[in-house]
Amino acid sequence: MSDEPTRAQSALHLIVGELEAVLGRLESAELEELAQAVTDADRVFVHGAGRSGIALRMTAMRLMHLGLTVHVVGETTTPAIETGDILLVASGSGTTAGIVAAAEAAGKAGARIAALTTARESTLAALADVVVVIPAAAKLDRSGSASEQYAGSLFEQAVALVGDAVFHSLWKRSGQSADDMWPRHANIE
Ligand SMILES: O=C([C@H](O)CO)[C@H](O)[C@H](O)COP(=O)(O)O
User: Fold this and answer.
1) Ligand 1 center from residue 182 Cα (angstroms)
2) Is 54 in the pocket of ligand 1 (CB under 6 A)?
3) What are phi and psi for residue 115, nearest 5 degrees?
4) NCBIfam families under this entry (predicted)?
5) Where do the DSSP E strands lie in 16-161?
6) pLDDT tens, 11-40?
7) Do 159 and 134 form a contact (C-beta atoms < 8 A)?
8) Phi and psi angles of residue 44, each rounded to the nearest 5 degrees, phi first
9) pLDDT per position as a tens digit, 143-176
């Protein structure tokens, strides 16, 4: 058998390399601001379209494991957002209509808004109290300069990892052990 990497292995190397590069360019102060805003909030609401939303659902689960009250916007049981809450949104483009509308509504309700986006100058970023810029490709960027991957893949992967990093830092600050958190894990699945 040849030692040559398969094409999927080559793709994995590409993805890991792109992630390392893009995550290395994140502003540490922005990440700290995000972690603090999440921990300061009464409740955390997450929202994103498509894969951006899927990535944030991973974060939502871990923040729940940490003991925070977390809701995914659009779920049947999600209540009204209000003052003291934070809406955490992810949108590579920063212009997805439903996400911008949600941020506007959350702001009017008195909630804080934290946005993960590639676009610091976007409508979404302008609405947000906390912005973490992930300098990946937005989904319509066909230049290949920010990423060789399809559409917003690099952004969406980075959102999941940023969420895990925020969770991990908050977990370590909390002093809880893994055993302390485990009873919150779903026991019907
Ligand atoms: O699902 C997505 C698409 O496959 C792009 O890679 C996006 O996450 C979805 O279209 C939302 O777009 P953004 O709000 O610009 O992240």
Assistant:
1) 32
2) no
3) -125, 135
4) RuMP_HxlB (TIGR03127)
5) 44-48, 70-72, 86-90, 112-117, 130-133
6) 999 999 999 999 999 999 999 999 999 999
7) yes
8) -115, 125
9) 999 999 999 999 999 999 999 999 999 999 999 9
